[in-house]
Design a protein that fits this description.
By secondary structure, the chain is an all-alpha fold. It is 74% helix and 0% strand. It is globular. The relative contact order is 0.13.
Length: 363
């Protein structure tokens, strides 16, 4: 006789399928994906027009800061966006430092993730959370460049952030005419476990993923810590599992799409059009189903990181490297997510961390 609260294996499969394929409702206005696509794509169009696609790609990375625009009143959303822009520029700069000091790459990127996670959790910054700060640092760490070019690249990403702020201002002026802003919620009292302990666990998982990638000598393994962070920062163990499955399956399908795209004779203008189109699709889908969005996130990220060197290596090598990067990052992210949402582990870890921090800083 089957216990009343237990499920048969077919029922478990059906339940799991419903969780993984659920499509959420969205109240996101269509103007938001358009503005996000312009923020990411306009710098690349400028780069294509001036014959410097690589410069446009760096500035496009700064344009991603638009995604942090909250739905609050105008003054609050612009201050929040500019603060995020500063953080994105700082993370990209520190990522360049990692590139010039390869032996310190893992500890420095781990420290970046730790600081970003603590700030994001302290200020309750909404999605995409710490993601694009780490994306900027990781891509910068694996971007071939010289010391003399570093100030130029920092200036380019700054310009990308500024143009995103201008687009955000124009979008907000239009959007707030037809929709009331969300109220500014007061920040809750920061909890030590939520801000400090959880951030340390997240940073440890991301740092471990990068250390393993380097030990395995994976080429340009920027995608490993990004995949790990995308999985481990789920709000629950169920969310972590869903994201892990969505990330692996979506990346597998997305790599097929990326293979088709980068196998074509792409020029600077076609890369710009692709980035704009992919950005629009992603911002339309990501609030509805993360796995569907990952299908398009994968080729977009490959374009942002590899566009300047496409054609120098066979498309199959790039696709194979990104797949193994994703599998490794998701596996470690799932383990980190289990630790993050395991009460016994968090209690033990929190006790050890409190012993290392003076009591006056805990209160």
């Amino acid at each position: 006789m089957t216990p009343p609260n237990s499920k048969t294996f077919p029922e478990l499969l059906r339940s799991e399928w419903r969780h993984l394929t659920r499509v959420n409702q969205s109240d996101r206005p269509w103007q938001m994906p358009v503005a996000a696509a312009l923020s990411a794509g306009l710098p690349i169009l400028v780069g294509a027009a001036t014959g410097h696609l690589d410069y446009g790609m760096v500035a496009s990375l700064g344009g991603m800061v638009f995604l942090y625009l909250p739905g609050t009143p105008l003054h609050h959303r612009m201050v929040t966006l500019m603060a995020c822009a500063f953080g994105l520029i700082a993370c990209y700069t520190l990522g360049l430092v990692c590139h010039f000091v390869p032996w310190a790459m893992t500890p420095l990127l781990t420290l970046i993730v730790l600081l970003v996670a603590m700030v994001v959790r302290f200020y309750r910054l909404g999605p995409p959370g710490a993601m694009f700060f780490v994306v900027a640092a990781s891509i910068a760490a694996y971007t071939p460049t010289s010391v003399l070019d570093a100030p130029l690249r920092i200036g380019l990403i700054t310009l990308g952030c500024l143009q995103a702020a201008l687009i955000a201002l124009a979008y907000s002026l239009v959007h707030l005419r037809v929709r009331e802003p969300l109220p500014i919620e007061p920040l809750p009292e920061p909890a030590f476990d939520f801000v400090i302990v959880d951030s340390i666990i997240i940073a440890a998982a991301v740092g471990l993923s990068l250390a393993v990638a380097q030990a395995l000598q994976m080429p340009r393994a920027y995608w490993v810590p990004i995949s790990c962070l995308a999985v481990v920062q789920g709000v629950s163990l169920r969310a972590v599992w869903n994201r892990q499955v969505h990330r692996v399956v979506g990346t597998g399908v997305g790599l097929g799409l990326a293979w088709v795209l980068i196998a074509q004779p792409l020029d600077a203008w076609s890369v710009a059009v692709l980035v704009i189109g992919l950005s629009f699709i992603i911002e339309t889908l990501v609030v509805r189903h993360y796995g569907f969005a990952v299908v398009f996130i994968t080729p977009l990220t490959i374009l942002l990181a590899e566009a300047a060197t496409l054609g120098l290596a066979p498309a199959g090598e790039v696709i194979e490297a990104r797949f193994f990067d994703t599998a490794l990052g998701c596996a470690i992210g799932l383990a980190g997510g289990y630790c993050l949402h395991n009460a016994a582990f968090r209690t033990r870890a929190g006790g050890q961390i409190r012993r290392l921090i003076p009591a006056r800083l805990v209160k």
